[in-house]
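Researcher: I'm comparing several assemblies side by side, and this is the next one on my list. It has 622 residues spread over two chains. Same procedure as the others: predict the full complex and return the structure.
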Amino acid sequence: MTLHPADRIDRALADTGSIACVGLDPRPELIPPALRRAALQRHGDTAAAFAEAVVAYNLGLLDAVVGRCAAVKPQVACYEAYGSAGWRALEETVAAARERGIAVVFDGKRNDIGSTATHYAQGAFGGAPGLDGAVVGGLGCAWLTVNGYLGADGIEPFLAPDAASSEHGVFVLVRTSNPSAGDLQDQASGAGTVADRMAALVAGWGGGRRGGCGLSDVGAVVGATWPEQARALRSAMPDTLFLVPGYGAQGGSAADAVAGRRSVGAGHPGLLVNSSRQILGAWQQHGADDWAGAARRALDVMNGELAAALR
Amino acid sequence: MTLHPADRIDRALADTGSIACVGLDPRPELIPPALRRAALQRHGDTAAAFAEAVVAYNLGLLDAVVGRCAAVKPQVACYEAYGSAGWRALEETVAAARERGIAVVFDGKRNDIGSTATHYAQGAFGGAPGLDGAVVGGLGCAWLTVNGYLGADGIEPFLAPDAASSEHGVFVLVRTSNPSAGDLQDQASGAGTVADRMAALVAGWGGGRRGGCGLSDVGAVVGATWPEQARALRSAMPDTLFLVPGYGAQGGSAADAVAGRRSVGAGHPGLLVNSSRQILGAWQQHGADDWAGAARRALDVMNGELAAALR
């Protein structure tokens, strides 16, 4: 059964009451000591040890957050830093999320020209051609973050022919949450900025690609640290799902994170708000013995704050 | 011994007479039938079979091109499409290139905010922190392609503190070779275009980061399909090494590929010209029995054409 990727996020809100996305960004210091020790005993201080500890941590986190979030988002760089061992951990993490029915956002900010972008799509979504024509690999993620600097033919390879057959979507970087985002994104271009131009492209690429919830499968990354821009960008992209990083540890409040919401009454607010460190590292403030419980409670707090901000 | 990454490319020109970069972009149909059959017999039609055939092919290619090119450039998407198995093939390929003394350009067009960009740098260059503080993994590539849409703090994590300690460089996408590159890159911004603005950023980021050859470790990707733009971009980036894709199979001629050269007499022409399919797939026109010889001869032809165009 084909389920449009925006409808999947919309259904998750109906089922869980949440627009939260849990960032699975494993860094050594965020992994609870007991899991670290066990992996070090088995593998020494190697990439394999990191990968084993990450999988143990992520599986516990997934059990803690299932039914309480709209999606999870592995930051691929955190895995890729450890090469093929890290990629194995990513594969096991995504597979475990899928088993639990959680939509996965592959946060890789991939981008390339058409034929090469197709390879990235194959890796993140449905698989690539084998030597004799079988379809092999493919993580089965629901969404992928992409960088739109290359224009339409760097985006189209990630999309199904039309909305009716769409099962995967992209979030295109529009306005990022980092301090130097303005080096290019805030430069004047036409009547607005480079980010405004990207927003217009995103709205165009998503035109006619809406699911039943009214949101398209071409989403946008709009950082929570820039609420005024988020409101302006919503006007330019009324039917776009915003992936909002920067909530919590990066400094954005719940009010900031929902600044780019769709108008009340439009159904889904059009937001998927990510938090990583605040959930993954919650045990650092509340004790490592119940690290999964600490993550769950941190997510519940975030869900409460977001719900209050949306009211 | 620290060797600035631009000086490494300059030394390769002195040693080999070549400014060519051989793109290692494995696709099933480019792998010679005998290698495909052997891998299928051992592994069936799986990602593991693809990976084994790719490693066999790449190792033969590296032996064929060593001493005849300035660098090799694995297109990471082609490996990543096959998940951790593809990443193992990438690791073996890069290790084999390093054993042969060939500089490797990791073509991943990576990009993210600062702390996350650091992870990408760790994976492509020198390794990441293990669970107990050891440095693990790290491909040991010399260069990495990056997308500069996030501005300075998405670039700096890839760079050493200064030119004297630099061993790794980046190529920032400025003007790409794909048909829709102009969707954003050709849009007006200030006195020029978005690509011009990116060029100014690249020149600024590379300021004071030159090696002995006069080129900085912040390079630029400038597609061979746009020679007039390449000439204009050279004025904006006089000390920048251009990575030029689009030569050969993508339609750019040798004259197009060298359009963005530095002025004659400046030493290194400031160009690293990539060809992938024309070299990897040369056996398809000249017979699969001597696929390595076909690749070597195709590279020799390319080197001759580039040398003539530079004269």
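Model: For your comparison table: The longest strand of chain A covers residues 169-175.
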